[in-house]
Amino acid sequence: MVKIAAVVDSACLIGLERIGRLDLLPALLEPIFAPPAVNREFGSTAAWVRVERPVDVGMVAALRLLVDPGESEAIALAYEKGVRIILDDRKAREVAQRLGVAVTGTVGLLLKAKQEGVIPEVRPLLDALDANQFRIGAALRAEALRLAGESI
């Protein structure tokens, strides 16, 4: 399996922690970066997360006009490093994509985990996320199950 570098936002960290599956991140990604604002929002630092501050404070300030502090720092850091960002908020995803940053969401990570044989099924994790107030739209859930080859 080829691991890719990525910057993570707090939503992914919080969602996976709630269902006891933070282990999926280092299984699929390396290195994993998080800016200080994401680290604060998450509330702790996993040993495999490299906390780094984005260099371009002007970019962070501009992004803060559009998205929250963690997302603004994460987008700026991913842009600076030229790596993928793990991001779930729709508006923040659009902002990152406009900057040319590749975006994957938590559900996309679950699909990758199944594809790589890290997990046998996506459905139980989608159910667990839903049970823990991690919002996944019906259309996204149906598409994820279709892509995973799991009946809807």
Give a written overview of the molecule.
- The protein is globular, with a radius of gyration of 15 Å.
- The protein has 152 residues and is an alpha/beta fold.
- Strands 3-2-1-4-5 form a five-stranded parallel beta sheet.
- Helices cover 53% and strands 12% of the residues.
- The mean pLDDT is 94.
- It has a domain at 4-106: 3-Layer(aba) Sandwich (Rossmann fold), CATH 3.40.50.1010.
- α1 (10-18) runs parallel beside α3, α3 packs across α5 and α4 (57-64) packs across α5.
- The protein is built from nine helices and five strands; from the N terminus they run βααβαβααβαβααα.
- The protein has helices at 10-18, 24-28, 36-42, 57-64, 69-81, 90-98, 106-115, 123-131, 138-147, and strands spanning 4-8, 29-34, 49-51, 84-86, 103-104.
- The two termini are 28 Å apart.
- α3 (36-42) links the parallel β2 (29-34) and β3.
